[in-house]
Amino acid sequence: MDSELESKLMTVRAVLREQGLSNAEIKQGAERGKIRLWGVPTADMGRLVLPEHVEYVPGAPRLTPGRDVAILYRDEDLAVVWKPSGLLSVKAQGRGGERDLVSYVGKLFGQAFAVHRLDEQTSGVMMVALNERTQFEIKRLLEHHDVERRYLALVRGFPSEERWSMETDLVRDRGDGKRGSGQGDDAKRAFTEFKLVEKLPGGTSLIEATLET
């Protein structure tokens, strides 16, 4: 890791203490989802991060970090939502009794329409349309690659290259919320570019993935 970058790293707790929060406020904020790392609720107060990535949001809705859905943005047409790992994006065949993110958003705001999805075990940010017109427009933008989709991921180890890419054929999910690679008439070509963002302590890396699917 770059020594200059490493010297700037602080624990989330230390950043919050510098912002003037007491230990009691930090503990309560972590338990209630009011501490954000890269805009996402976190309870990992010992994680080493750059201070500018940490935010305390006292007015945020109460939730359990890593387990609950978090509404990051909403207007009359669109909701931007954090999906935790283990939650279906949309209803899956044969699993009608399980919660899914789009149905949850629909209960909050009256109606909701899917425009894309994340695998069940993947956590991340999703767009959810709040009316059919917006659903149509966003799907059109996605199909024409007019929306840039970038994802951040923490991985073990350090990649051998700063940038690389991967191309594969995705097939429809099997009804269990997961999609795989394979051959078939319904297979869709997917191209993803990766970039190393940071080498982090503990032998982990932060990478950025840009989808060109």
Automatic annotation (TrEMBL):
Record-level GO BP terms: enzyme-directed rRNA pseudouridine synthesis
Keyword Isomerase: yes
Pseudouridine synthase RsuA/RluA-like domain: residues covered: 78-213
Record keywords, A-Z: Isomerase
PROSITE patterns referenced in this protein's UniProt entry, alphabetically: PSI_RLU
GO function terms (MF aspect): pseudouridine synthase activity; RNA binding
A matching Pfam family: PseudoU_synth_2
InterPro entries found in the cross-reference section: PsdUridine_synth_cat_dom_sf, PsdUridine_synth_RluA-like_CS, PsdUridine_synth_RsuA/RluA, RluA_PseudoU_synthase
Record family assignment: Belongs to the pseudouridine synthase RluA family.
Name of the protein in question: Pseudouridine synthase RsuA/RluA-like domain-containing protein
Organism: marine metagenome
Taxonomic classification: unclassified sequences, metagenomes, ecological metagenomes
